[in-house]
Amino acid sequence: MHRYPVGAVHAAAATLLLVSAAGVLAQGLSEARTALAFGALIAVGEAVRITLPGDREQAPIGAAGALAYALLGPLRGLPTDQGVLQVVAVTTIAGLLGLLPYAARRRAPQPDQIARRILTTGFAATLFQPLYNSGALDRITTRGAQYGLLLAAVAVLAALCDVVLAAALHSARTGRRFGPALRDELRALLGIGSAIAATGLVISLGAGEVGLWALPVFSAPLLLTQLSFRRYSATSTTHRQSVASLARATEVAGYTLPGHSRRVAALSRAVGRRLGMREHDLLLLECAALMHDIGQLSLVEPVPGGATALLPQAEQRRIARLGSEVIRHTGVPPEVAGFVERQAEPYRTPDGARDPGLPPASRIIRAANAYDDLVSGDPGLAGRLEALERLRLDTGREYDPRVVEALALVCAGGCPRGTRR
């Protein structure tokens, strides 16, 4: 796991903030009323953050307000001169004030998110403010289509800057390849991200016509969108909690060891992330891993320690098939049942051929389940190393080599959340 990109991004954001704050202190605050209005909007937006599926935290109104201030040209027909340093200082300080309630509850966002906001806002302001304040845009009417297209181009570039930063930080922290991480961030941009960029653009243009009234008026649609995302996120969270509760049935009935399903799910998600799976596929994988042992409830006598990896191949397949039949009646996506049903199939068939139709999720669950079964008797370092060695000995026949190596890298980097015993 490479921390250097993380440190470089944080250092760049901290340096930009310090320089901006020093610049504002030295030169004074220009147009304080406008700065306070945008600062209030950003602070309120940060205070009503939402958590999207995949544990993505977002402050749509705060981000749109910061972008609008960075792109602010005329205000009710009159020129402004806030400049890059003031934009960065005002938006960052306002954002931090909005985060105080979360800090009091020890739920403050990660430093990565704050650093991204500082750098993205500074990038947008650097692209626009010098051009506007120098008079280079005088040839483009501030009420024409050309001016709107210019603002839209800057907003798009700022959004892409944030996407690249998010992917780089995510890749550095998790060890995931940059390409898949970037694709996930681009897909997320098409959702709430596009609404943020559009709202910031509209607020900036609206302020040029109607003044500061544009802030609450044009933020209202984004607020409604945010409420819809919040409801969707709450529904997804409830669904995941229901799946987790159902998965615990095997533990309550004594068929599996306490925490086994959660550990396998956490390992599977970490391995899938390292292999470059999309966020949507990771959610399906996690769901299948949580319920991978449901079929054990059909057994008359529990398997010792719930270790299905040590059972004969035919018995493993029977349990997997029965579990998939139960899952098909739970309302989860049909792919989840398919992943569980095929988790008992080895990487290669008896004639040595590799089954190209075997889902990657099934291969991951098979290896993660076997690993947790093997270390159940000895969770110490020696037991974990022995379990990995046994998996490697069966690599290419029972287990996918890429999955086993990814699992080894995940374990070498420390247990993912939910796997500690």
Automatic annotation (TrEMBL):
Keyword Lyase appears in the UniProt entry: no
Membrane-spanning ranges: 84-102, 114-132, 144-167, 188-207
Signal peptide extent: 1-26
Pfam family, one: HD_5
UniProt keywords, alphabetically: Membrane, Signal, Transmembrane, Transmembrane helix
Gene3D superfamilies given in the database record: Hypothetical protein af1432
InterPro entries to which the protein is assigned, alphabetical: Cyclic_di-GMP/3'3'-cGAMP_PDE, HD/PDEase_dom
Domain HD/PDEase: 253-383
Designated name of the protein: HD domain-containing protein
Organism encoding this protein: Peterkaempfera bronchialis
